[in-house]
Amino acid sequence: MSKKVRVRFAPSPTGPLHIGGVRTALFNYLFAKKHGGDFILRIEDTDQNRYVEGAEKYIIDALEWCGIPFDESPEKPQDKFGPYRQSERKHLYKGYADELIEKGKAYYAFDTSEKLDYHRKDHEAKGKTFIYNWHNRLKLDNSLSLLPEEVEKRLASGEDYVIRFLTPPDEKVYLKDIIRGDMEIDSNVLDDKVLYKSDGMPTYHLANIVDDHLMEISHVIRGEEWLPSLALHQQLYDAFGWQAPEFAHLPLIMKPVGKGKLSKRDGEKGGFPVFPLSWNESTGYKEAGFFPEAVVNFLALLGWNPGTEQELFSLTELVETFSLERVNKSGARFDPDKTKWYNQQYMQSKNDAELASLFLVELEKHSDIEESKRSAEYVKQVVGLIKERATFVSDFWDLSDYFFLPPSAYNEKAAKKQWKEGTTDIMNQLLDVLKTQTDFSSETLESNVKSWITDAELSFGKVMPPLRLVLVGDMKGPHIFDIMAMIGKEETVARIEKAIVVLG
Fold it and tell me: What is the secondary structure of 318-358 as a DSSP string?
């Protein structure tokens, strides 16, 4: 590419960042890094009525947690391109709006909201749709229908106004999109969008175009919901005489079931997060126990196809492999179960020491665990035995509580099935075998216990299932001799003796 790649993620601080927004940021980042370019965060806060306190910090914190770093942002400004909040750039926009007026590409409109509402309802009553454009603009209250003297008088009086783009009639607007290909729009169906308001704030459309131009944005990679704005944006670039960036509109992330895009309500109904971090009562992926790498990985494959069967990618691999040409046009169906699968895969790839450090935090809630079983080494060994059955670190306790505390009760159904006539006698015999063991390693225990079972002409089904029940409290867990070696001889004997009293 001859021009340096510069892309921007430009969210509005009107609430929490949806995972669709995270994916947009991710695709911008991957594209920039693939081409040695810059990834920029710009906060589009021109709509002060919808501004939410704390939303900007949430956006930054969320993307930092995901590990998607910015080259430029409000906290990492570059003098040539800043500021990075639109509210701090509002002094720039009036001049560009005036330039469009002078070029005859825009005009002043003084229509009140009440008058516009009247026109809309009047059109609806006639089965029509009201569009402010070429076919009615001369009948409305604007500088095209008023004498110049009247326009100057109204502006001088401080009357409220907006500046609208003058959409030319009877033109074909030719559009290019990296993902969707070439498109053609009839200008007659476009309305004269508001670009600037007399309160000194631009609308999204003007601010977006001016900022992208001044920040030398080479590619605009954004969600499909902005596709209807593409014709206006291309016309604005043409009106200013600027070269437009290349555009790529990403497909929507769709509901797991049914039609429409994924929403907060879908997450609440389905019991899965739709935000990277918690926001008010909504749990985020971080708080739900997902690893950030897993979130990035599953988001990357929502709408993008690497062209191979590979599903697990590091961020570095994603940068190397990513291309906009392999992004799908159609929406990507969100699969909550698949997100859990990704987390499980990353769980298995992490070393036991790292997972143990996370589990130790959870163990602080259980004050009745003896100190020897809180050591990093002991917890690390436990994690190594149970992690393949876990999806989240929060699963560890239910999978391993018997490594730390003796069972307080026995699964009733399992007890009825496993503790039969003669089981008490078999467990007493087993106690005699175990009490003589000097080497309580898993390998030695397995060899000696199995030899005893064979010599005593017992079936393994009469010994091993009830043994697991008394040690674990249920029919779950890893290799039984690994459990015995971990909890030790004294604890193993004590658990069997207690079960003989309770179940015998």
Answer: HHHH--GGGB-SSPEEP-HHHHHHHHHHHHHHS-HHHHHHH
- Residue pair 100/165 in contact (Cβ under 8 Å)? The answer is yes
Q: Is 288 helix (H, G, I), strand (E, B) or coil?
A: coil
Asked if 472 and 403 touch (Cβ cutoff 8 Å), the reply is no
Q: Which two tokens stand for residue 467?
A: 């043994």
Q: How many residues appear in the chain?
A: 504
> Distance between CA 152 and CA 399 in Å, rounded?
77
Q: What residue type is 32 in one-letter code? A: A
Active site residue 264: yes
Catalytic, out of 34, 90, 94, 264: 264
Inter-residue contact 96 to 206 (CB < 8 Å): yes
**Helices and strands per DSSP (H, E), number in the chain:** 20, 11
- Alpha helices by DSSP H, 173-241: 204-214, 230-240
100: CB partners within 8 A, 6+ apart: 106, 163, 165, 195, 239, 240
Q: Cβ atoms within 10 A of the Cβ of 460, count?
A: 11
Give this prediction's pTM. Answer: 0.92
Structure tokens given for 135: 């076919």
**Pairing between β-strand 38-41 and β-strand 6-9 as defined by DSSP bridges:** parallel
Question: Cα dist. 488→74, 196, 303, 484 in Å?
Answer: 57, 75, 51, 6
Residue among 45, 172, 164, 181 at smallest CA distance from 116? 164
Q: Is 118 helix (H, G, I), strand (E, B) or coil?
A: helix
Using DSSP, state whether 56 is helix, strand or coil: helix
Q: Could you report the per-residue pLDDT of 31-82, keeping only the tens digit for each?
A: 999 999 999 999 998 777 888 999 999 999 999 999 999 999 999 999 899 9
CA triple 292-296-300, angle to 5 deg: 170
